[in-house]
TrEMBL record:
Belongs to the [NiFe]/[NiFeSe] hydrogenase large subunit family. Keywords: Iron, Magnesium, Metal-binding, Nickel, Oxidoreductase, Periplasm. Pfam families: NiFeSe_Hases. Heterodimer of a large and a small subunit. Fe cation binds at C80. The lineage of its organism: Bacteria, Pseudomonadati, Thermodesulfobacteriota, Desulfobacteria, Desulfobacterales. It comes from the Bacteria. Its main location: periplasm. One of its GO terms (molecular function) is ferredoxin hydrogenase activity. It is found in: Periplasm. InterPro entries: Ni-dep_hyd_lsu, Ni-dep_hyd_lsu_Ni_BS, NiFe-Hase_large, NiFe/NiFeSe_hydrgnase_LSU. Transmembrane segments: none annotated. Mg(2+) binds at E58, I435. This is Ni,Fe-hydrogenase I large subunit.
Length: 482
């Protein structure tokens, strides 16, 4: 579906009065999410994001063999299971005291890299694009808002719809690339504590490389250009949806055994850059359906104890804070921390060389799409290098015994944001497991201090000229890829 029908109960009233709009569910996302916004004088003045599904993986994992966690946690998400497999395996690597071989590191990068590219292409073409172009008057392109603010010419519209269909094939090829080294997709079997189970053969790497050529061509010649093409008719969306302007990235894609990563770790708070300090992360639950006794805890000491129906709460998403403040995760955060040069197309379109040169326009609906597209190309170029660096027939796995008692922390990135897994092992089984998923950083509710979550804050000021067709609310939310 292109958009859920908002419910207001007061259509046609004076625009100077507050009007509440509830969009439930938010469509074209992966998961269960509801938005409630208050509109006055044609703009959003307050917002609440509600995650209505309790997953309970933290309870499922208690008492299990630690090695099960890599497989079980992948079921958190069908779009980015490889990110959860990576975070879980990193936590277990830490607990088991394992250092990967270079070939194991590269194999993991190739598996996750293909999924990253697939996820970004999925996000724009099959989840977000219908906020900017109209498909045919048939499913899955309808139903949609009656007045959905489509501004592109027919030629551009038809071009994008054609790419929408082509992107389905491109995503299938990305899945095949994951399966060549990871065994299957979704929910790969080949990522494990200690590396990967599949030693890459020359045949497998050649098959991966042949498929990759089509992927890179699509990214460079279609995905990147169409993002900048939209910046013309939708230029105002480079000024809409600012938010807190605080960012977190844990870093992803290790380039060596020394901790250097392709996409850099970093924290950006109140206009200043900081190094990542995991002790500064705390999760608050005053407005979440979890026991108040668990609020304000670092994930390494966290507990997940649901309390459905808790007075004043409105979400099953906890509110993570870094150094006490809300922070946004995702491609914008990673690209801000990394600050790479833009593609040639991006430099020509924006007249700047590096991502941070874009400035405040990054913190916008369309700015987040630009960051995601540019990141896709950056990852694609790295994948090309990893294909050349992988050694056929060389070991990718380091065996290690299950420790009797240990702790492990895995911090990486899912396509949609910063991802953390923590495992505590006692008597050789999992005694505590905590997951701070990527979307939790963005779609969380207010915290104990009353601070809105990042999406909630970014919605403030978003134009809603027609309360029956709150197009920009959906555009803003989907720009985060929740």
């Amino acid at each position: 579906m292109s958009g859920s029908k908002p419910t207001t109960g007061s259509v046609g009233v004076d625009s100077t009065k507050k009007l509440k709009i509830s969009i439930d569910p938010i469509t074209r996302i992966e998961g269960h999410l509801k938005a409630e916004v208050e509109v006055k004088n044609g703009v959003v003045v307050d917002a609440r994001m509600s995650g209505g599904m309790y997953r309970g993986f933290e309870q499922i994992l208690v008492g299990r063999d630690p090695r099960d966690a890599v497989q079980i946690t992948q079921r958190i998400c069908g779009v980015c299971p490889t990110a959860h497999a990576t975070a879980s395996s990193l936590a277990l690597d830490d607990a088991f005291g394992v250092t990967l071989t270079d070939n194991g590191r590269i194999a993991r990068n190739l598996i996750l890299g293909a999924n990253f590219i697939q996820s970004h292409i999925l996000h724009f073409y099959h989840l977000a694009a219908l906020d900017y172009v109209n498909g045919p008057d048939t499913a899955p392109f309808i139903p949609r808002y009656k007045h959905n603010d489509i501004r592109v010419s027919k030629d551009i519209n038809d071009l994008c719809v054609g790419q929408y269909l082509e992107a389905l094939e491109i995503r299938k090829i990305c899945h095949e690339m994951v399966a060549l080294l990871g065994g299957k997709m979704p929910h790969v079997q080949g990522i494990v504590v200690g590396g990967t189970t599949e030693i890459p053969t020359r045949e497998a790497l050649n098959a991966y490389a042949e498929r990759f050529k089509k992927i890179k061509k699509f990214v460079m010649e279609k995905y990147i250009p169409v993002i900048y093409t939209l910046a013309g008719p939708y230029g105002d969306l480079l000024k809409t949806g600012v938010g807190h302007k605080n960012l977190v990235s844990w870093g992803v894609f290790p380039m060596d055994s020394k901790g250097n990563t392709l996409l850099k770790p970093g924290v950006y708070t109140d206009g200043k850059d900081y190094k990542v300090d995991p002790t500064q992360i705390k999760e608050y639950v005053k407005y979440s359906w979890f026991e108040d006794s668990t609020t304000g805890l670092n994930p390494t000491r966290g507990r997940t104890r649901p309390e459905p129906g808790k007075a004043g709460a409105y979400s099953f998403i906890k509110a993570p804070r870094y150094n006490g403040k809300p922070h946004e995760g995702g491609p914008l955060a990673r690209m801000w921390a990394t600050n790479p040069e833009l593609s040639k197309t991006g430099q020509e379109a924006l007249g700047v060389k590096k991502l941070r040169d874009i400035g405040d326009a990054c913190f916008s609906i369309l700015g987040r799409h630009v960051a995601r597209a540019e990141e896709t190309l950056l990852v694609a170029k790295a994948v090309e290098q990893w294909i050349a660096q992988a050694t056929p027939g060389k070991e990718t796995f380091v065996p290690a015994a299950i420790p009797e008692n240990a702790e492990g922390l895995g911090m990486t990135e899912a396509p949609r944001g910063a991802l953390l897994h923590y495992v505590e092992i006692k008597n050789s089984v999992i005694s505590n497991y905590q997951i701070t998923s990527a979307t939790i950083w963005n779609a969380n509710p207010r915290d104990d201090m009353g601070q809105r979550g990042p999406i909630e804050e970014a919605l403030i000021g978003v134009p809603v000229p027609d309360v029956d067709n709150p197009v920009n609310v959906g555009r803003l939310i989907r720009a985060y890829d929740p």
